[in-house]
Amino acid sequence: MSRKIRVGLIYGGKSGEHDVSLQTALAVMKAVDFNKYEITPFYITKKGEWKSGAPLLSPAQSKEALTFGGDSALEPIASNALSPIFGSIQSKGEVTISSTVSSQAKASEPGLDVIFPLLHGTFGEDGTIQGMLEIANIPYVGAGVLASAVGMDKVMMKKVFAQEGLPQCVFRYFNRTEWEKNRAYHLMELETAIGYPCFVKPANLGSSVGISKARNQEELIAAVTFAFQYDRKVIIEENIDAREIEVAILGNDEPQASVAGEIVSSSEFYDYKAKYMDGKSAMVIPADIPAETAEHIRQLAIQAFQAVDGSGLSRVDFFLGKLDQKVYINEINTMPGFTPFSMYPLLWEESGKPYTELLDNLIQLAIERHEAKQAIQYTFDVE
């Protein structure tokens, strides 16, 4: 018998991108088809406390559960109350998501059919919660443990991209201990290899949190100090006079790339305020670039997605040099935002895939990947 798909929506999180996650969750809940899905909210506070509530069956209920700063509709839960996640689906009885999406689950069985982890940054986009969901053996939307971890750590990501032969800007990195013990050496190395201006970033964070542009040594030292507030490792990148081009990826083993879009920032660079607060940054979709350049960027985006072993979705960001038209890959974001200002869903809308269909596809991809992994043999018996 067909029934609604039970989706666990996890949002918030102990991360510098907590508020971004709330915006993403709110946008998803406004668009979800409640005729297909039953949503159970799992809110994680900034302190890491989990809260949950009864399944949401209508947009009105979702609005109450996702009110900003307010989780009054949700109650604190102990770890053993996460049993809906740990012990969900075991096959029998068809569950229909759409005419082309199905999974096997028993209608009377408690639990969830799939998890949608709308978490950004630390403990949400870095492979940690993905590992928990792997242990729980439940389908979840988005990248797996490896791709999430690599995509989150900008240093490891750039090393993978370098191995893949993807073009990227000059960068250097170090951890807090290395900086404190050899500050003079690192300053000399940065000024020699990269020069000014340059960008300083926490290695493991997104949404432009903790990023600064340094124009001289004094600003560089201040920027490194600031970045260390958000991570134990920082990365410094050369400044490129470039346009910012982004491509959305959707799929598992056979990913598809959207049209390319361009970000025209309201600030000197695309910082947190420009992304989420002032609403003044412009998105040009599709980007006004030559067709062959756009296709080249789309192919590089697929290559980057496959290089980190991506699945589900990602947004791949590029720089396009204003003078030489050279393409540089900047980064891959394995859980891009779905806020009203977010590029990812807008790119797919321009590519002919509306928001509700996109959500259906993401859930379908999560279930397909999970079912494929069930065929893997994890034990070995010696005869």
UniProtKB/TrEMBL annotation:
It is found in: Cytoplasm. Its cofactor is Mn(2+); Mg(2+). GO terms for molecular function: ATP binding; D-alanine-D-alanine ligase activity; metal ion binding. GO terms for biological process: cell wall organization; peptidoglycan biosynthetic process; regulation of cell shape. It comes from the Bacteria. Pathway: Glycan biosynthesis; Cell wall biogenesis; peptidoglycan biosynthesis. Keywords: ATP-binding, Cell shape, Cell wall biogenesis/degradation, Cytoplasm, Ligase, Magnesium, Manganese, Metal-binding, Nucleotide-binding, Peptidoglycan synthesis. InterPro entries: ATP-grasp (IPR011761), ATP_grasp_subdomain_1 (IPR013815), D-Ala_lig_Van_CS (IPR000291), D_ala_D_ala (IPR005905), Dala_Dala_lig_C (IPR011095), Dala_Dala_lig_N (IPR011127), PreATP-grasp_dom_sf (IPR016185). Its EC number is 6.3.2.4. Pfam families: Dala_Dala_lig_C, Dala_Dala_lig_N. Residues 158-364 form the ATP-grasp domain. GO terms for cellular component: cytosol. It catalyses: 2 D-alanine + ATP = D-alanyl-D-alanine + ADP + phosphate + H(+). ATP binds at residues 154, 199-201, 207-208, 237-244, 330-331. The active site is at E17, S207, S342. Its main location: cytoplasm. The keyword DNA-binding does not apply. Mg(2+) 2 binds at E331, N333. Cell wall formation. Belongs to the D-alanine--D-alanine ligase family. This is D-alanine--D-alanine ligase. It comes from Paenibacillus sp. SYP-B3998. The lineage of its organism: Bacteria, Bacillati, Bacillota, Bacilli, Bacillales.
